[in-house]
Every structure is written in structure tokens, then in C-alpha cells.
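Researcher: I'd like a candidate sequence for this fold, 194 residues long. If you have to choose between options at a position, lean toward the conservative one.
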């Protein structure tokens, strides 16, 4: 998946625009939107500017508080990666989701072009979520396998647990006073002091 992201970033995906540049005659159309665009397929259209791409990015961006506009692909990646998130799981999800979304946009396009599978945002949402759940499970464990995006996004708003530490030191008692020190240990009802 990261490899596809890298290729999109450097405009190296074999879209119709690229194939046409090699001299082949291509019927201009896209394989993602409804109604179908009649302009020659480009990476920009397929991965971030087209209606279908925008719909998919919006489904996943909204719970993270991210906006979807007409930014360049590199700006989209930076926006997802540099945003401040509430917890480590959210931060991890935001780092991997752009690659998973990009992969699904390409898979959906190829299934449409070569397999006649009509693109459906609900299907793409489901496949992206399944991939996301798998990588989050591998990283953090303890996650059910069959989570929907509605269920998974509830993790996003949970704040990180902050632990604070307090320095404790021994203070000498005033003259003619005694201090009883205890280590505070207690086992099976018996405690000790020293
Ligand atoms: Zn399209």
C-alpha cells in the first residue's frame, strides 16, 4: 500500500493519461464517478479531485477533524500526518489511513475498469475499515475483527490518559521529635514498617 502512495506522490501510476502519452488511443472517461467523467483519467482525478475520491476522503477525514478540499496529494498526506490527535491509536490511524484509502481507490478503479464492478462508496468504506482494523490490531491488539467505521471512529475522541509523577523525599523531623517511616507494604492483612 505504501508503494502505491509513493507512486501517486511522484505521479507514476499507470492511469489512462500516462498510457495515452505512450501513443495509445484512449477513450476519455473515468472509472470511478457517477455520472462518469468524460475527461481523460488522471491521478489527480482518481485519487483526490474526482467526486468518488472526494466522497471517500470525506468519510474518513471528518471524524479526525480534517477538511477535504482541492489540495495537492502531498498536502493531503502532510495534513493527515501533522495534525495533533487525542491519543496514540488515533495518531497511528491517521498515519496509515491515507495509504489504505489510496490503495482502495486504485483497487476500486481497476475492478471497475477490468471487472465491470460499479464503484460503491459503502463497499470502499467497508474494505478500508477492514484493512485499518487489521493494522491497528497488529500494532495495539485487543480490537474486534468485525468493526464498522462508525464503531472504530469512537476511538478517535477518547483522550489519552495522562500520568503525572510527584517527587517524594524524606524530611528530617524537628529536634526532640520522632518520625515513624513505613514502606506502606501490605500482604495478606500483614503490614510492615521500618
Ligand atoms: Zn471519476
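Model: Candidate sequence:
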Amino acid at each position: 500500500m505504501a508503494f502505491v502512495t509513493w507512486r501517486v506522490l511522484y505521479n507514476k501510476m499507470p492511469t489512462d493519461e500516462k498510457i495515452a502519452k505512450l501513443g495509445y488511443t484512449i477513450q476519455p472517461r473515468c472509472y470511478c464517478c457517477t455520472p462518469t467523467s468524460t475527461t481523460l483519467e488522471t491521478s489527480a482525478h482518481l485519487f483526490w479531485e474526482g467526486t468518488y475520491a472526494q466522497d471517500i476522503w470525506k468519510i474518513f477525514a471528518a471524524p479526525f477533524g480534517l477538511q477535504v478540499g482541492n489540495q495537492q496529494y502531498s498536502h493531503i498526506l502532510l495534513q493527515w500526518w501533522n495534525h495533533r490527535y487525542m491519543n496514540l491509536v488515533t495518531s497511528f490511524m491517521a498515519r496509515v489511513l491515507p495509504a489504505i484509502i489510496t490503495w482502495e481507490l486504485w483497487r476500486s478503479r481497476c475492478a471497475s475498469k477490468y471487472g465491470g464492478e460499479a464503484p460503491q462508496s459503502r463497499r470502499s468504506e467497508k474494505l478500508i475499515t477492514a484493512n485499518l482494523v487489521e493494522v491497528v490490531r497488529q500494532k495495539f491488539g485487543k480490537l474486534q475483527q468485525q468493526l464498522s467505521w462508525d464503531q472504530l471512529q469512537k476511538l478517535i475522541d477518547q483522550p489519552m490518559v495522562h500520568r503525572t509523577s510527584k517527587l517524594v523525599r524524606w524530611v528530617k523531623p524537628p529536634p526532640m521529635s520522632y518520625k515513624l517511616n513505613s514502606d506502606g507494604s501490605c500482604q495478606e492483612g500483614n503490614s510492615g514498617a521500618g
